[in-house]
Write a structure and sequence with these properties.
The protein has 352 residues and is an alpha/beta fold. It has helices at residues 18-29, 48-61, 82-91, 115-118, 120-128, 149-164, 178-186, 198-202, 226-237, 254-257, 272-282, 289-301, 345-349; strands at residues 2-6, 10-13, 34-37, 69-75, 94-99, 133-135, 170-172, 192-196, 243-245, 309-318, 323-324, 330-331, 339-344. It has one domain (8-304): Metal-dependent hydrolases (TIM Barrel), CATH 3.20.20.140. It is built from 13 helices and 13 strands. The structure holds N-carbamoyl-L-aspartate and zinc ion (2 copies).
Length: 352
């Protein structure tokens, strides 16, 4: 069996920089036409000038025959000037602004400390410029349980924000809960959407502890209970246009995952399409796969859909145990060493 679908895009991707960028970008370019590239580098990408420079280094790192297009984002800080949003829009290469609540996740220390208190002028300019706000939707208060951080963020930050600025376009990134699903489903006006990762569709929090501590399944927001996973699967496989593909592929070297204080992030770029196909196939909803991978994202962002097609072939293939890095390090992908059923044609042609 074979599926032919419009080439997908990845609406949430970490490409890093330097040698790691060179190592990972081909895996995304193998499958995806475009990707929204996250700005949480060290130092973060806070200006249009930095985004333009980062874009150049991504283009340089691409395999020569690749048409992959990076769509850049700015990292919102307490000091972001509304004029920077105007510059970003004018540049034609910045497509969104990313909110990291300070301390919420990897490289978020320069993030926003008080969104509703400090950032309204910038957010108002974003409404003017029709620039989407992408949110890592978790509060960071130490008295809020880590499994409740998304729900509390929705109730205490996102709802009040949208009451103040109902025309602000918002993408809730990497949603993990039934609460986020309901929130997106019930927002009126079409200005709120969500990206969904392979791990939050295929794993519940048991995967963190199966047979011992599993650092390669650790990401933020942390995996949740099975009822939440099921709610997310139902949402995406129902064909709702407000949910679309965002892998949150977040590479960290093996040593930094298997450490006393392990980094959050799952490297899923090589397996993401096969993983999404598995979700839709198992739900008997393959007819909605293409909209999720290739239509809903560009439609929400007001961009054209890709014209090229790719194939997904129903054929077992084995995910590599790891990818070797130039410095001797290794990247362990999601589902390392396991078999997956759907082989993207691009991998087929390049014999994985
Ligand atoms: N998802 C993660 O666990 N990690 C991401 C950051 C993020 O998307 O929150 C990273 O940059 O490593
Ligand atoms: Zn995040
Ligand atoms: Zn991310």
């Amino acid at each position: 069996m074979e599926l032919s679908i419009t080439q997908p895009d990845d609406w949430h991707l970490h490409l890093r920089d330097g040698d790691l960028l060179k190592a990972v970008v081909p895996h995304s370019a193998n499958h995806f036409g475009r990707a929204i590239v996250m700005p949480n580098l060290k130092p973060p990408v806070t200006t249009t000038a930095a985004a333009v420079a980062y874009r150049e280094s991504i283009l340089k790192a691409l395999p020569t025959e690749s048409n992959f297009t990076p769509l850049m984002t700015l990292y919102l800080t307490d000091n972001t000037d509304p004029d920077e949003i105007k510059l970003a829009r004018k540049s034609g290469v910045v497509f969104a602004v990313k909110l990291y609540p300070a301390g919420a996740t990897t490289n978020s220390q320069d993030g926003v400390s008080d969104l509703l208190g400090n950032s309204l002028p910038v957010l108002e300019e974003m409404v003017e410029q029709n620039m989407p706000l992408l949110v890592h939707g978790e509060v960071t208060n130490s008295d809020v349980d880590i499994f409740d951080r998304e729900k509390v963020f929705i109730d205490t930050i996102l709802r009040p924000l949208l009451q103040k600025l109902p025309r602000l376009k918002v993408v809730m990134e990497h949603i993990t809960t039934q609460d986020a699903v309901r929130f997106v489903e019930t927002c009126r006006g079409g200005s709120v959407a969500a990206t969904v990762t392979p791990q939050h569709l295929l794993l519940n929090r048991n995967a963190l502890f199966q047979g011992g501590l599993q650092p390669h399944n650790y990401c933020l927001p942390v995996l949740k209970r099975e009822i939440h996973r099921q709610a997310i699967v139902s949402a995406v496989t129902s064909g709702n246009k407000r949910f679309f593909l965002g892998t949150d592929s977040a590479p960290h070297e093996r040593q930094r995952k298997e450490a006393t204080c392990g980094c959050a992030g799952i490297y899923n770029a090589p397996v993401a399409l096969a993983a999404y196909a598995k979700v839709f196939a198992e739900a008997g909803a393959l007819e909605y796969l293409e909209a999720f991978t290739s239509f809903n994202g560009p439609d929400f962002y007001g961009l054209p859909r890709n014209e090229s097609k790719i194939k997904l072939i129903k054929q077992p293939w084995k995910v590599p145990e790891y990818y070797a890095l130039k410095d001797g390090g290794q990247l362990v992908p999601m589902f390392a060493g396991r078999n997956l059923d759907w082989l993207p044609s691009t991998l087929h042609e390049r014999s994985i």
